[in-house]
């Protein structure tokens, strides 16, 4: 009997508390007067700017398909796309739907890009850590993902990957190494 009272008390208290709420409810949405919405949040432009607005476009990023090849996948980024904004989407990896169909990413989960710029058609991607710690075949796919994705935003002469400003020597699918890799180096890994 002594065990039943505390348990019964807890059940009764939880039932009483679950019926309480701090937010009043209604059966239908209520209309808010637009004049009462602060900070210009209903404006067609970005609040606090003269007439700023953002246009989004789709941009391809390359991920690893179920056959182990590099395949393009569309991502939504602000226009005009920059190397940084597109790499941010690439690093997020495949979507849940893509994962369900066998797509993956060869990029490490903890990859951090400190800076990504394009200089005279060469993408320079500065990382916090070297990619050399991942297995060679995965590294080749990862470099391919970065190269093909960067090409789509203007790195037409290839990419250089640096760690704290020091260029990395990167493996190519043909077995050689280079500090500057181009789209042509990874054509054999493309799907189709």
The N- to C-terminal Cα distance equals 74 Å
Tally the helices: 4
Spatial strand order of the main sheet: 3-4-5-6
Q: Spell the H/E element sequence.
A: HEEHHEEHEEEE
Bin the strand percentage: 15-25%
Rounded mean pLDDT is: 88
The total count of strands amounts to 8
Chain oligomer state: single chain
Helix content: 10-25%
Helix/strand-derived class? Answer: alpha+beta
Low-confidence segments = none
Describe the largest sheet. 4 strands, mixed
Rg calc: 25 Å
Anisotropy-based shape: extended
Question: What does this protein look like?
Answer:
By secondary structure, the chain is of the alpha+beta class. Helix content is 23%, strand content 22%. It has four helices and eight strands; from the N terminus they run H-E-E-H-H-E-E-H-E-E-E-E. The protein has helices spanning 4-18, 83-91, 96-100, 136-151; strands at 56-64, 70-78, 113-119, 122-127, 159-163, 166-167, 170-171, 177-178. Strands 3-4-5-6 form a four-stranded mixed β-sheet. Strands 1-2 form a two-stranded antiparallel ribbon. Strands 7-8 form a two-stranded antiparallel ribbon.
């Amino acid at each position: 009997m002594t065990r039943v009272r505390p348990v019964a008390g807890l059940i009764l208290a939880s039932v009483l508390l679950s019926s309480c709420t701090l937010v009043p409810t209604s059966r239908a949405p209520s209309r808010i007067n637009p004049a009462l919405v602060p900070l210009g949040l209903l404006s067609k432009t970005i609040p606090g700017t003269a007439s700023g607005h953002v246009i989004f476009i789709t941009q391809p990023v390359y991920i690893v398909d179920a056959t182990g090849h590099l395949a393009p996948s569309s991502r939504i980024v602000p226009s005009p796309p920059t190397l940084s904004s597109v790499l941010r989407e690439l690093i997020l990896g495949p979507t849940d739907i893509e994962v369900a169909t066998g797509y993956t990413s060869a990029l490490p989960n903890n990859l951090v890009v400190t800076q990504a710029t394009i200089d005279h058609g060469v993408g320079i991607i500065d990382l916090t850590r070297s990619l050399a710690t991942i297995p060679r075949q995965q590294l080749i796919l990862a470099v391919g993902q970065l190269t093909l994705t960067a090409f789509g935003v203007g790195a037409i002469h290839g990419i250089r990957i640096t760690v704290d400003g020091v260029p990395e020597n990167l493996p190519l699918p043909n077995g050689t190494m280079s500090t500057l890799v181009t789209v042509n180096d990874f054509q054999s890994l493309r799907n189709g």
